[in-house]
Design goal:
By secondary structure, this protein is mainly α. It has six helices and three strands, in the order ααβααββαα. The protein has helices spanning 11-30, 37-47, 54-61, 65-77, 99-123, 125-142, and strands spanning 52-53, 81-85, 93-97.
Length: 143
């Protein structure tokens, strides 16, 4: 345990390094469609959600509301995402994917799949399944 308290073994530092390295693979593949990896994740969740409040969306993504709002701005500006005031409560904003957003998501999905296949080939599908389960467990324990 003592060795694990050395900053070189920092959990968040190591996770961030891996995330940056892996993000580069997705960024390279997806560059041609103009969708960033973080934007793709937003579009992917919205693709499977009819409409969601900003608060619920931020919670689902494990993001701060302000960070999510900042990440939504370019998607709204490009017409991929719609943010409207709730009909039942004017203080609540609801987010949904537009038709243009659905089309862009489908375009980006093909490129994302190329990156996903590349990483699974490099790391191995079984290794990824185990790591993904461990990451979800860690996320749920600290959330």
């Amino acid at each position: 345990m003592r060795d694990q308290l050395n900053p070189i073994h920092c959990v968040v530092g190591n996770l961030q390094q891996v995330a940056r390295a892996v993000s580069r693979v997705y960024a390279e593949e997806m560059r041609s469609c103009g969708v960033k990896r973080s934007q793709f994740n937003i579009l992917a969740v919205l693709m499977h959600t009819e409409s969601i409040t900003l608060s619920d969306f931020a919670e689902r993504l494990f993001m701060e509301r302000t960070t999510l709002s900042r990440n939504l701005k370019p998607l709204v500006k490009q017409g991929y995402v719609s943010v409207i005031l709730s009909a039942s409560d004017a203080r609540v904003r609801e987010i949904s994917l537009t038709r243009k957003g659905i089309k862009k998501f489908r375009e980006a999905l093909e490129l994302w799949r190329k990156a996903q296949k590349k990483l699974l080939r490099i790391y191995g599908e079984e290794n990824w399944r185990k790591l993904e389960a461990s990451l979800h467990k860690l996320r749920d324990l600290v959330a």
